[in-house]
C-alpha cells in the first residue's frame, strides 16, 4: 500500500467527519437564520408602520410591541452569533462546535417568552369582549404557563448536562421541548377556532358585511395555519432528529411568524375602519370587499367575543359606529 495514500486517508478522515457533523447540525441552523432574517425585516417594517399609524394607542400596548420587537432583536442577534461562531471562527474545531451546540438551549426559553407575549395579548383582548368563550381563554392562559415551565426546564437541563459523544440529545430531556411545542400548537388551534366561531356567529345577513366577515375568517385561518404548521414541523423534527438540531432552524422561523402575526393584526385596524366609513369601499387584506357606512351599524357587537387583535378591533369599530348611529 502506498504510504502517501495512507497518510492522505488518515488526514481526510477527521475532515470528512467534521464536514458531516457541520452539515447535519449547523446547516439547518444557517438556513433557519436566513429565513428568520427575512421575517425580521418584515417585523421592523411593520413596527415602523405601527408606531407611525397608531400614536394614540395605549401605553401598555406600545410596551408589549416594543418588548416583543426587542426580544426578537436579541433572538436575531443570537442566531447570527451562533452561525458566525460555528461557520467562521470555530469551523475547524469540532470540540468548540459541540460546545456551541449547548448555547442553542436558550432558544426554547426565548421563543416561549415571545409566543407568550403575542398569545397573551390576543387572549386578553378576546377575554374582555365575550363571556361565551372565556372558559377556552382561561384554558389558553393555563397552557401558556405550562409551556413556559417546560421551556425553562428544557433550558436548564440543556445547560447543566454535559455533551457526550457529540450528541445534542445527551443534553436534553427528550419530552420537555416537544411538550412545550405541543402545548403551543394546542393554544393556536383553540385561539383560531374561537375566532372563527365568534365571527361566524356574528353574521348579520347583510351581504357586504358577511363578505367582510368571511375575509377576516379567511385571514384568521391563514395566519393560524402558518403558525400552527410551523410549530407542527418543529414538533416533528424535534422528535425525529434529536441529534441533527434541525428543529433549531425551524424554531428560528416559528418565533418570527408569531411576532409578524401580532404586528400584522395591529396594522390592519385602519383598513377595517376604512371599510366601515367609506361607502366606495377599500381593499382589506388585499381583497376588494367593502361595507357601506350605513350598513356598518349592523356589524357584530362586543358580545360575540374573539381571539385575535383583528377581531377585537373590528368589534370595537362596530361598537363606536352603533353609538354614533343611535345618537
TrEMBL record:
<feature type="domain" description="DUF6534">
    <location>
        <begin position="185"/>
        <end position="271"/>
    </location>
</feature>
<feature type="transmembrane region" description="Helical">
    <location>
        <begin position="245"/>
        <end position="266"/>
    </location>
</feature>
<keyword id="KW-1133">Transmembrane helix</keyword>
<keyword id="KW-0472">Membrane</keyword>
<protein>
    <recommendedName>
        <fullName>DUF6534 domain-containing protein</fullName>
    </recommendedName>
</protein>
<dbReference type="InterPro" id="IPR045339">
    <property type="entry name" value="DUF6534"/>
</dbReference>
<feature type="transmembrane region" description="Helical">
    <location>
        <begin position="104"/>
        <end position="123"/>
    </location>
</feature>
<feature type="transmembrane region" description="Helical">
    <location>
        <begin position="212"/>
        <end position="239"/>
    </location>
</feature>
<dbReference type="Pfam" id="PF20152">
    <property type="entry name" value="DUF6534"/>
</dbReference>
<keyword id="KW-0812">Transmembrane</keyword>
<feature type="transmembrane region" description="Helical">
    <location>
        <begin position="63"/>
        <end position="84"/>
    </location>
</feature>
<feature type="transmembrane region" description="Helical">
    <location>
        <begin position="180"/>
        <end position="200"/>
    </location>
</feature>
<feature type="transmembrane region" description="Helical">
    <location>
        <begin position="135"/>
        <end position="160"/>
    </location>
</feature>
<feature type="transmembrane region" description="Helical">
    <location>
        <begin position="25"/>
        <end position="43"/>
    </location>
</feature>
Amino acid at each position: 500500500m502506498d504510504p502517501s495514500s495512507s497518510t492522505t486517508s488518515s488526514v481526510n478522515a477527521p475532515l470528512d467527519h467534521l464536514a458531516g457533523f457541520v452539515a447535519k447540525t449547523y446547516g439547518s441552523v444557517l438556513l433557519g437564520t436566513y429565513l428568520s432574517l427575512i421575517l425580521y425585516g418584515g417585523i421592523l417594517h411593520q413596527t415602523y408602520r405601527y408606531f407611525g399609524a397608531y400614536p394614540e394607542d395605549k401605553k401598555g400596548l406600545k410596551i408589549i410591541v416594543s418588548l416583543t420587537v426587542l426580544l426578537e432583536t436579541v433572538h436575531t442577534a443570537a442566531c447570527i452569533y451562533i452561525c458566525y461562531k460555528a461557520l467562521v471562527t470555530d469551523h475547524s474545531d469540532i470540540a468548540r462546535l459541540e460546545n456551541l451546540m449547548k448555547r442553542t438551549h436558550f432558544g426554547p426559553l426565548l421563543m416561549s417568552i415571545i409566543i407568550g407575549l403575542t398569545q397573551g395579548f390576543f387572549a386578553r383582548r378576546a377575554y374582555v369582549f365575550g363571556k361565551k368563550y372565556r372558559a377556552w381563554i382561561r384554558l389558553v392562559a393555563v397552557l401558556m404557563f405550562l409551556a413556559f415551565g417546560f421551556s425553562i426546564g428544557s433550558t436548564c437541563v440543556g445547560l447543566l448536562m454535559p455533551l457526550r459523544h457529540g450528541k445534542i440529545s445527551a443534553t436534553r430531556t427528550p419530552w420537555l421541548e416537544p411538550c412545550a411545542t405541543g402545548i403551543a400548537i394546542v393554544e393556536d388551534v383553540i385561539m383560531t377556532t374561537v375566532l372563527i366561531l365568534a365571527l361566524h356567529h356574528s353574521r348579520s345577513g347583510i351581504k357586504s358585511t358577511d363578505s367582510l366577515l368571511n375575509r377576516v375568517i379567511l385571514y384568521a385561518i391563514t395566519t393560524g395555519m402558518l403558525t400552527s404548521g410551523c410549530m407542527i414541523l418543529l414538533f416533528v423534527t424535534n422528535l425525529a432528529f434529536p441529534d441533527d438540531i434541525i428543529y433549531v432552524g425551524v424554531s428560528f422561523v416559528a418565533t418570527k411568524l408569531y411576532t409578524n402575526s401580532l404586528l400584522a393584526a395591529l396594522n390592519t385596524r385602519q383598513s377595517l375602519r376604512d371599510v366601515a366609513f367609506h361607502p366606495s369601499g377599500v381593499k382589506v387584506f388585499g381583497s376588494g370587499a367593502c361595507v357601506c357606512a350605513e350598513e356598518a351599524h349592523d356589524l357584530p357587537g362586543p358580545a360575540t367575543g374573539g381571539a385575535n387583535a383583528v377581531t377585537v378591533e373590528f368589534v370595537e369599530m362596530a361598537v363606536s359606529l352603533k353609538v354614533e348611529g343611535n345618537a
